[in-house]
Amino acid sequence: MFWLVALLAQDGLQYVYRVYAPDDALPADLFWAAFHCHDEGPHPRASDRFDAAAIWQNRQPQQT
To answer: What superkingdom does the record give (predicted)?
Structure first.
């Protein structure tokens, strides 16, 4: 299971990160995981405002 977290950056672009976490993960933990991943990359600084991030869960159908 993974979550998608979109962060706004200073260059005006939105960067989306895949965060692997359980269904009951806290939104703040998902945000900080994506933020630190972005911060370590070559991209312009992302906004550290939690309310500026979009977080959604990727729900894939169960395979039987």
So the answer is: Bacteria
